Amino acid sequence: MKFLHILRYLVIFLLLNACGNSPYQDKAIRFFKKGNAELKRKNYELALQYYDAGIKADTTLPDIYNNRGIVHYQLSNYDQALQDYARAIRLKKDYADAYFNRANVWYELRKFENCVKDLNETAQYYADSATVFFARARAKMQLADYQGAKVDLDKVISLKPDYADAYDSRGYQKIHLADFTGAEADLQKAIQINPNQHLAYANLGLLRLEQNKRAEALEYLNKSLGLNAYETYALNQRAYAYLLDNQQDKAKIDIEKSFTIDKTEANNAEAQLTRELYLLPQDAKPNKPKIERFFAQARPTFPPRKKEFFVNLIQKY
Question: Is 254 a member of any domain?
Fold first, then answer.
């Protein structure tokens, strides 16, 4: 499932203590402040230049490394971001913000175990942060730790009782845990809080498919796509519903639209898997390594009945 919010990064904009600083540290702080101003404006290249200059003036300030890591993250320079966060943490062992920001990078690199590990560190210092626990639930879901994700979402809801995204996401975890009654209650609660919660309708569609109620599933999926016609998650679920009904022509339309919207394997492996299995020309030779790779990436998002459907299909090859 697509969580509605990506991990947020934590930026240090507070002024460093200037009392008793060396001239080199004072110079570094001036560059740090200029870099922060450009980071706020999303002028990442210029912010990077200021942070580089600050670090050249003084290599002992962890906040500069943290913020330069954020710039590298925004520029998709993930290796450099990891190096900066590691340096910030070496300089300040309890640097919760840097652990959280590094978790962003691990998630983008699909290193979900590392992501959870860093979020565990963060949670020690932000024990009442819904953002941290929501982020950790997101990573745990990718590891198929649905119970662990549910526990984190329980915490989020205790902190933010009117957070529709959390009810939506917890309902999704409960589908995987075969708690259909609990899933129904959470997803309906998400819609009650936010009637435009389109992913909650998509998840209700998935729930109905797990319950083998295809007509109702299509009603919910159509409602979801009526709210957001470009949501790949809902398009993929509707295509799956059509495939269950042997309506391959309709499934092809949804999958091709989903694939056109997002061709990245990391974000839309299900569309790529379905295209390889169903929608390539009949005389095309199946690419088994690609099928296995797409399935490995999409599998954590498949509840039991859907997983069984794709496993049986793949075994034919």
Answer: no
